[in-house]
Amino acid sequence: MAAEYVLTDGREIAVSREAVEKLLSAGSGDAALLYLYILSHGGCYEPVDAAGAIHRSSGQVESAMEVLERLGLVASRTSPAPAPKLRPADERPQYTLEDIKRFAATDKTFQGLVPEVQTVLGRVLSSDGLLKLLNIYDNLKLEPAAILMLVNWCAARDEERYGPGRRPSMRTVEKEAYIWEREGIVTVEAAEDYMKRQSQLRVGERETAAVIGLAGRNLSASEKSYIDSWLDMGFTTDAVAEAYDRTVIKTGRLTWRYMDSILCSWHAKGIHTAGEAREKDAPPARKEPPRRQGSAREEVTAGEYEQMRATLRMLKGEDGQ
Predict the structure, then answer these.
(1) Residue 176 sits in the same domain as residue 97
(2) How many domains does the chain have?
Protein backbone atom coordinates (compact mmCIF):
# COMPACT_ATOMS: atom_id res chain seq x y z
CA MET A 1 0.00 0.00 0.00
CA ALA A 2 1.39 3.39 -0.99
CA ALA A 3 2.21 5.76 1.85
CA GLU A 4 0.06 8.85 2.16
CA TYR A 5 1.52 12.24 3.00
CA VAL A 6 -0.02 15.56 3.98
CA LEU A 7 1.46 19.05 4.07
CA THR A 8 2.45 20.08 7.58
CA ASP A 9 2.11 23.82 6.97
CA GLY A 10 -1.35 25.16 6.26
CA ARG A 11 -0.12 28.40 4.69
CA GLU A 12 -0.31 28.34 0.93
CA ILE A 13 1.44 29.94 -2.03
CA ALA A 14 -0.52 29.56 -5.25
CA VAL A 15 1.36 28.08 -8.21
CA SER A 16 -0.50 27.82 -11.50
CA ARG A 17 -0.83 24.47 -13.24
CA GLU A 18 0.88 25.98 -16.29
CA ALA A 19 3.90 27.01 -14.19
CA VAL A 20 4.11 23.56 -12.61
CA GLU A 21 4.02 21.87 -16.01
CA LYS A 22 6.72 24.16 -17.38
CA LEU A 23 8.98 23.56 -14.36
CA LEU A 24 8.50 19.80 -14.58
CA SER A 25 9.23 19.76 -18.30
CA ALA A 26 12.44 21.79 -17.76
CA GLY A 27 13.72 19.25 -15.24
CA SER A 28 15.64 21.93 -13.33
CA GLY A 29 15.45 21.65 -9.57
CA ASP A 30 17.36 24.91 -9.18
CA ALA A 31 14.83 26.74 -11.35
CA ALA A 32 11.94 25.30 -9.31
CA LEU A 33 13.54 26.37 -6.04
CA LEU A 34 14.24 29.86 -7.36
CA TYR A 35 10.67 30.18 -8.63
CA LEU A 36 9.33 29.29 -5.17
CA TYR A 37 11.71 31.83 -3.62
CA ILE A 38 10.44 34.58 -5.94
CA LEU A 39 6.80 33.67 -5.22
CA SER A 40 7.40 33.76 -1.48
CA HIS A 41 9.01 37.21 -1.77
CA GLY A 42 6.16 38.92 -3.55
CA GLY A 43 7.68 38.62 -7.01
CA CYS A 44 10.97 40.27 -6.04
CA TYR A 45 14.36 38.76 -6.87
CA GLU A 46 17.53 39.61 -4.95
CA PRO A 47 20.39 37.43 -6.25
CA VAL A 48 22.47 37.31 -3.07
CA ASP A 49 19.49 36.62 -0.78
CA ALA A 50 18.11 34.07 -3.23
CA ALA A 51 21.40 32.19 -3.37
CA GLY A 52 21.52 31.96 0.41
CA ALA A 53 17.85 31.03 0.74
CA ILE A 54 17.96 28.11 -1.69
CA HIS A 55 21.53 27.09 -0.81
CA ARG A 56 22.97 27.55 -4.28
CA SER A 57 25.93 29.48 -5.65
CA SER A 58 25.48 32.78 -7.43
CA GLY A 59 26.31 31.05 -10.71
CA GLN A 60 23.66 28.41 -10.14
CA VAL A 61 21.09 31.07 -9.29
CA GLU A 62 21.93 33.01 -12.45
CA SER A 63 21.54 29.85 -14.55
CA ALA A 64 18.23 29.08 -12.85
CA MET A 65 17.00 32.60 -13.64
CA GLU A 66 17.87 32.08 -17.30
CA VAL A 67 15.76 28.92 -17.28
CA LEU A 68 12.80 30.78 -15.75
CA GLU A 69 13.13 33.56 -18.31
CA ARG A 70 13.28 31.02 -21.14
CA LEU A 71 10.15 29.31 -19.80
CA GLY A 72 8.37 32.65 -19.67
CA LEU A 73 7.75 32.38 -15.92
CA VAL A 74 9.60 35.61 -15.16
CA ALA A 75 10.28 38.66 -17.27
CA SER A 76 13.01 41.26 -16.94
CA ARG A 77 11.82 44.85 -16.60
CA THR A 78 14.11 45.66 -19.49
CA SER A 79 11.87 43.57 -21.74
CA PRO A 80 9.38 45.58 -23.79
CA ALA A 81 5.91 45.77 -22.29
CA PRO A 82 3.28 43.80 -24.19
CA ALA A 83 1.10 45.87 -26.44
CA PRO A 84 -2.33 46.58 -24.97
CA LYS A 85 -4.95 44.16 -26.23
CA LEU A 86 -7.75 45.72 -28.25
CA ARG A 87 -11.22 44.38 -28.44
CA PRO A 88 -11.75 41.44 -30.81
CA ALA A 89 -12.48 42.49 -34.37
CA ASP A 90 -16.08 41.29 -34.18
CA GLU A 91 -16.70 43.68 -31.26
CA ARG A 92 -15.30 46.71 -33.10
CA PRO A 93 -17.86 48.29 -35.44
CA GLN A 94 -16.62 48.90 -38.95
CA TYR A 95 -17.62 52.49 -39.46
CA THR A 96 -17.98 53.88 -42.97
CA LEU A 97 -18.07 57.32 -44.56
CA GLU A 98 -21.86 57.03 -44.59
CA ASP A 99 -21.78 56.67 -40.81
CA ILE A 100 -19.73 59.86 -40.55
CA LYS A 101 -22.23 61.74 -42.74
CA ARG A 102 -25.12 60.42 -40.66
CA PHE A 103 -23.57 61.41 -37.33
CA ALA A 104 -22.51 64.78 -38.73
CA ALA A 105 -26.08 65.42 -39.85
CA THR A 106 -28.01 64.08 -36.87
CA ASP A 107 -25.76 64.12 -33.78
CA LYS A 108 -25.20 67.68 -32.57
CA THR A 109 -22.68 66.56 -29.93
CA PHE A 110 -20.52 64.87 -32.57
CA GLN A 111 -20.97 67.91 -34.82
CA GLY A 112 -19.48 70.14 -32.11
CA LEU A 113 -16.77 67.66 -31.15
CA VAL A 114 -15.14 67.53 -34.59
CA PRO A 115 -14.04 71.21 -34.81
CA GLU A 116 -12.86 71.15 -31.17
CA VAL A 117 -10.58 68.18 -31.85
CA GLN A 118 -9.33 69.79 -35.07
CA THR A 119 -8.43 72.95 -33.14
CA VAL A 120 -6.33 71.00 -30.61
CA LEU A 121 -4.57 69.03 -33.35
CA GLY A 122 -4.10 72.09 -35.56
CA ARG A 123 -5.40 70.45 -38.72
CA VAL A 124 -8.53 69.28 -40.48
CA LEU A 125 -9.26 65.62 -39.82
CA SER A 126 -9.03 63.26 -42.75
CA SER A 127 -11.72 60.68 -43.43
CA ASP A 128 -9.64 58.10 -41.56
CA GLY A 129 -9.23 60.51 -38.64
CA LEU A 130 -13.00 61.08 -38.51
CA LEU A 131 -13.59 57.32 -38.48
CA LYS A 132 -11.25 56.95 -35.51
CA LEU A 133 -12.94 59.83 -33.68
CA LEU A 134 -16.34 58.26 -34.31
CA ASN A 135 -15.05 54.96 -32.92
CA ILE A 136 -13.92 56.70 -29.72
CA TYR A 137 -17.21 58.58 -29.40
CA ASP A 138 -19.77 55.95 -30.41
CA ASN A 139 -18.03 52.64 -29.68
CA LEU A 140 -15.76 53.31 -26.70
CA LYS A 141 -18.35 55.68 -25.24
CA LEU A 142 -15.96 58.28 -23.84
CA GLU A 143 -17.80 61.42 -22.78
CA PRO A 144 -17.27 64.28 -25.27
CA ALA A 145 -15.47 66.39 -22.67
CA ALA A 146 -13.32 63.38 -21.76
CA ILE A 147 -12.44 62.96 -25.46
CA LEU A 148 -11.21 66.56 -25.58
CA MET A 149 -9.17 65.93 -22.43
CA LEU A 150 -7.75 62.81 -24.08
CA VAL A 151 -6.71 64.69 -27.23
CA ASN A 152 -5.14 67.50 -25.16
CA TRP A 153 -3.37 64.90 -23.03
CA CYS A 154 -1.87 63.21 -26.08
CA ALA A 155 -0.86 66.58 -27.54
CA ALA A 156 0.89 67.66 -24.33
CA ARG A 157 2.67 64.32 -24.10
CA ASP A 158 3.95 64.58 -27.68
CA GLU A 159 5.23 68.11 -27.06
CA GLU A 160 7.07 66.92 -23.96
CA ARG A 161 8.61 64.02 -25.85
CA TYR A 162 9.35 65.57 -29.23
CA GLY A 163 9.35 69.33 -28.75
CA PRO A 164 7.00 72.31 -29.14
CA GLY A 165 4.45 72.20 -31.91
CA ARG A 166 4.32 68.43 -32.24
CA ARG A 167 0.82 67.00 -32.45
CA PRO A 168 -0.30 63.36 -32.24
CA SER A 169 -1.97 61.46 -35.03
CA MET A 170 -5.53 60.23 -34.59
CA ARG A 171 -4.09 56.73 -34.59
CA THR A 172 -2.13 57.65 -31.44
CA VAL A 173 -5.24 59.22 -29.90
CA GLU A 174 -7.35 56.15 -30.69
CA LYS A 175 -4.70 53.83 -29.23
CA GLU A 176 -4.65 55.84 -26.00
CA ALA A 177 -8.46 55.87 -25.99
CA TYR A 178 -8.51 52.07 -25.85
CA ILE A 179 -6.22 52.20 -22.83
CA TRP A 180 -8.50 54.72 -21.14
CA GLU A 181 -11.61 52.70 -21.91
CA ARG A 182 -10.01 49.51 -20.59
CA GLU A 183 -9.11 51.33 -17.36
CA GLY A 184 -12.62 52.73 -17.03
CA ILE A 185 -11.56 56.29 -17.84
CA VAL A 186 -14.62 57.39 -19.80
CA THR A 187 -15.91 60.30 -17.71
CA VAL A 188 -14.49 63.75 -17.01
CA GLU A 189 -14.04 62.91 -13.34
CA ALA A 190 -12.12 59.73 -14.11
CA ALA A 191 -9.97 61.57 -16.66
CA GLU A 192 -9.15 64.32 -14.16
CA ASP A 193 -8.14 61.74 -11.55
CA TYR A 194 -6.02 59.87 -14.08
CA MET A 195 -4.25 63.02 -15.24
CA LYS A 196 -3.56 64.03 -11.66
CA ARG A 197 -2.01 60.66 -10.88
CA GLN A 198 0.04 60.73 -14.06
CA SER A 199 1.26 64.24 -13.28
CA GLN A 200 2.35 63.14 -9.80
CA LEU A 201 4.06 60.14 -11.35
CA ARG A 202 6.04 62.33 -13.76
CA VAL A 203 7.15 64.56 -10.88
CA GLY A 204 8.25 61.45 -8.99
CA GLU A 205 10.11 60.20 -12.05
CA ARG A 206 12.00 63.49 -12.44
CA GLU A 207 12.92 63.65 -8.74
CA THR A 208 14.01 60.02 -8.70
CA ALA A 209 16.01 60.41 -11.89
CA ALA A 210 17.79 63.42 -10.37
CA VAL A 211 19.02 61.54 -7.28
CA ILE A 212 20.57 58.81 -9.44
CA GLY A 213 22.32 61.23 -11.78
CA LEU A 214 19.88 61.21 -14.71
CA ALA A 215 18.51 64.74 -14.52
CA GLY A 216 18.18 66.81 -17.67
CA ARG A 217 17.27 64.11 -20.17
CA ASN A 218 14.34 61.89 -21.12
CA LEU A 219 14.27 58.44 -19.58
CA SER A 220 14.43 55.39 -21.80
CA ALA A 221 11.52 52.96 -21.69
CA SER A 222 13.48 50.52 -19.51
CA GLU A 223 14.65 53.24 -17.12
CA LYS A 224 11.10 54.54 -16.80
CA SER A 225 9.84 51.02 -16.12
CA TYR A 226 12.29 50.54 -13.25
CA ILE A 227 11.58 53.95 -11.68
CA ASP A 228 7.80 53.62 -12.03
CA SER A 229 7.91 50.23 -10.31
CA TRP A 230 9.86 51.74 -7.39
CA LEU A 231 7.34 54.56 -7.08
CA ASP A 232 4.48 52.05 -7.22
CA MET A 233 6.09 50.16 -4.34
CA GLY A 234 6.00 53.37 -2.29
CA PHE A 235 9.70 54.21 -2.03
CA THR A 236 10.67 57.74 -1.05
CA THR A 237 13.30 59.62 -3.01
CA ASP A 238 15.80 59.31 -0.17
CA ALA A 239 15.35 55.53 -0.13
CA VAL A 240 16.17 55.36 -3.84
CA ALA A 241 19.21 57.57 -3.20
CA GLU A 242 20.33 55.19 -0.43
CA ALA A 243 19.96 52.17 -2.74
CA TYR A 244 21.84 54.03 -5.47
CA ASP A 245 24.71 54.81 -3.08
CA ARG A 246 24.98 51.17 -2.03
CA THR A 247 24.85 50.07 -5.67
CA VAL A 248 27.69 52.38 -6.69
CA ILE A 249 29.80 51.34 -3.70
CA LYS A 250 29.27 47.67 -4.55
CA THR A 251 29.51 47.76 -8.36
CA GLY A 252 31.26 51.04 -9.11
CA ARG A 253 28.41 52.36 -11.30
CA LEU A 254 24.65 52.52 -11.71
CA THR A 255 23.63 48.90 -12.28
CA TRP A 256 19.87 48.87 -12.74
CA ARG A 257 19.29 45.20 -12.01
CA TYR A 258 21.43 45.23 -8.86
CA MET A 259 19.77 48.42 -7.58
CA ASP A 260 16.34 46.97 -8.34
CA SER A 261 17.22 43.84 -6.36
CA ILE A 262 18.07 46.00 -3.33
CA LEU A 263 14.78 47.88 -3.51
CA CYS A 264 12.75 44.70 -4.10
CA SER A 265 14.41 43.16 -1.06
CA TRP A 266 13.52 46.22 1.03
CA HIS A 267 9.95 46.19 -0.24
CA ALA A 268 9.56 42.56 0.85
CA LYS A 269 10.80 43.59 4.32
CA GLY A 270 8.47 46.60 4.54
CA ILE A 271 11.32 49.10 4.16
CA HIS A 272 10.48 52.20 2.08
CA THR A 273 12.54 55.10 3.49
CA ALA A 274 16.26 55.69 3.87
CA GLY A 275 15.89 55.84 7.65
CA GLU A 276 14.22 52.43 7.73
CA ALA A 277 16.92 51.01 5.47
CA ARG A 278 19.73 52.26 7.70
CA GLU A 279 17.94 50.97 10.79
CA LYS A 280 16.72 47.57 9.55
CA ASP A 281 19.13 46.76 6.74
CA ALA A 282 22.36 48.57 7.51
CA PRO A 283 25.30 47.60 5.28
CA PRO A 284 28.17 45.76 6.99
CA ALA A 285 30.47 48.13 8.85
CA ARG A 286 33.71 48.78 7.05
CA LYS A 287 36.72 47.36 8.85
CA GLU A 288 39.37 49.95 9.60
CA PRO A 289 42.90 48.74 8.91
CA PRO A 290 44.81 48.14 12.18
CA ARG A 291 47.02 50.99 13.22
CA ARG A 292 50.73 50.32 13.09
CA GLN A 293 52.41 50.28 16.45
CA GLY A 294 55.69 52.13 16.78
CA SER A 295 58.52 49.70 16.12
CA ALA A 296 61.67 49.42 18.20
CA ARG A 297 63.60 50.94 15.30
CA GLU A 298 61.27 53.98 15.32
CA GLU A 299 61.83 54.43 19.09
CA VAL A 300 65.63 54.22 18.70
CA THR A 301 65.53 56.70 15.86
CA ALA A 302 63.56 59.14 18.02
CA GLY A 303 66.11 58.74 20.81
CA GLU A 304 68.96 59.33 18.42
CA TYR A 305 67.23 62.44 17.16
CA GLU A 306 67.02 63.90 20.70
CA GLN A 307 70.71 63.10 21.24
CA MET A 308 71.57 64.94 18.03
CA ARG A 309 69.60 67.98 19.19
CA ALA A 310 71.45 67.95 22.54
CA THR A 311 74.82 67.71 20.78
CA LEU A 312 73.89 70.60 18.48
CA ARG A 313 72.93 72.79 21.44
CA MET A 314 76.25 71.98 23.13
CA LEU A 315 78.25 72.91 20.01
CA LYS A 316 76.40 76.22 19.88
CA GLY A 317 77.32 76.87 23.50
CA GLU A 318 73.72 76.76 24.66
CA ASP A 319 74.37 74.16 27.43
CA GLY A 320 76.47 74.72 30.48
CA GLN A 321 76.99 78.42 29.79
Answers:
(1) yes
(2) 3
